[in-house]
Amino acid sequence: MDLQAQAARLREALNEHGYNYYVLDAPTITDHEYDRMLRELEDLEAAHPELIVQDSPTQRVGGKALESFQQVTHRVPLQSLQDVFSPEELMDFDRRVREAADGPRYLLEPKVDGLSVALEYEDGVFVRGATRGDGQVGEDVTKNLRTIRSIPMRLENAPPVLIVRGEVYMPRKTFERLNEERELRGESLFANPRNAAAGSMRQLDPKVAASRGLDMVVFNIQYSDHGPFESDSAGLDWLRSMRFKVIDYQLFEDMEQVQSSIFRLGDRREDYPFDIDGAVVKVNSLTQRDALGETAKFPRWAAAYKYPPEQKESVVEDIVIQVGRTGVLTPKAVIAPVRLAGTTVTNATLHNQDLITEKDIRIGDTVIVQKAGEIIPEIVSVVKEKRPEGTRPYLLPSVCPVCGAAVARDEDGAHIRCTGAECPAQLLRNLTHFASRDAMDIEGLGPAVVEALVNADMVRTPADLYRLDRDSVAELERMGKRSADNLIAAIERSKQNDLSKLLYALGIRQVGQKAGKILASRFGSLDALACATQEELTDIDDIGGITAGYITEWFAAPQSQHLIAALKEAGVNMDSQAAPVGDKLAGITFVLTGELSACSRKEAGEKLEALGGKVSGSVSKKTGCVVAGEAAGSKLRKAQTLGVPVIDEAQFLVLVGEKEGDGEALLAQLKNRDKEGKAHGDQARGPDGQLSDGDLQRTERTEN
Questions:
Q1: In the annotation, is 111 catalytic?
Q2: Where do the structural domains in the chain lie, given as residue ranges?
Q3: For 589-676, which CATH class?
């Protein structure tokens, strides 16, 4: 078999198995077999790049990160629907329809709470996908949509042009898993699956979108050379035959039937894998739709029934405290069982002390309960006239209910957090952070392995990692001897890390990578830092009073002292191994954009910081210099607009002393510009907008 035929055979088989798994939810081979076939195709395409086609399953994992999203003008506008909120408004909609259409038949479907997008196909190949935007113009998110495995990359027997509309969503189980992982890493949590889906779809790096487990369901043909269809249902059935994942629908003869089905759908909304915030009612006949027409905002042939939040009375039987993986104390109300939105509710989130105080929620109170976003039970208000005598205002405890360590309010005052360095409730998060790449960089110690070690009671503090037994680790599920050997070796290597990485790994509040490097350089050892006063800390640039307070409090805590002693005993390095090379770039803020050939942007940033420079992620008037590599985009354009100096990779290497050239002249011009603080958009630049290889000639703009 020739290579082209072999690649085609593998693509066809993988697409078939992907359809069975992601659309029909009926896999026909094991995950291992699918992965083996995918690896075979990846190896074949890597050896013969000419075999790669844009609809290959290998292209779903995401390519190079984007600098920004391009705008797309929709060929057919993506309209929104008119909302109705009551049975009376639904009957008014029916009356208006019947005035223009004889005997309409209605199509009813759940309203998916996600991100609306349009998919475009040319000759059966997926070529572009865009967000709804304002309905007329959206953003090109093609690369991110390619990562959604239920979206077909190629259609058989397709018309020359096909545009379909659907909803990208994050399944609830995926959302819960994602938030658990973000909590372990100490990242902010997504508020709900819709926000998570929208945020994932707008990631500039498609690999991030690919990791988010998004899905999509199609509900409309926007444009097609095929047809015409007589009805919406016929079009949806055709889309299903084309192997799209299509929204479930029902057909009804009158609005009373529609109304009853809407209520039934609302009662079982939790049966769906996605969130729904209502039901969509549409006239099924496309001829009748044409007759009904549309307003400037909405089609007259459709309406979206929005479910009102169901509210019921209950009684607060108790308030319990949960300590999250990031140490936040979250109060939860235990309430008398009540039926809401199709499920029995026995507790409601109280979020924080401020909410409890604001609503004056007490144990014994009769309260009004609803489901926020139809998912999370919450207390709306207290029925004060039913409050029993003797109740007292509720206050969160002053110590952690899990480990007994002191608690402290966040600087924004919203949350109360346990300060214990060895708090069992925070163990998974602390260990995951401790082992992360920017901290102790223990390869192979991700969240799954951390959880396995904790569940096996092999690790109770980060120091326990350095006492792991290789044979015991090998017996863990999905480990084995080789993986255990690799993990133990990685843990052993981490003992030699610089103090700056350890400081970040310890999870001291507001001590990130940058602060860790500054503190390690200034004090030289962990013991010296532990003895530092707040005054000594605040004398350091970039260490403010709040951060200094967190540092001294952390070192004073008994759990922290116990952890440090255990890490010392395990042989973990406590000293700074490398101080900055110098401070010649002190006072200059750099922004890196585009691709560099000599090193990664992260490595380039470290070179600049080692010479005293600061590195920022965004361009502003205070930026001292932009380093622009290949394919630099919006940051370069903004720098040119603001008159910020721009240097290329060659000039960057001269500046950091890794290439011969007049680096002193280059540095002098940058420092002079920074010192004078004047805008200077008129430097001598090459055709690409970069500074010339000669001096940084400067022409001052005249202020009128």
A1: yes
A2: 3-61, 83-306, 313-418, 420-579, 589-676
A3: alpha beta
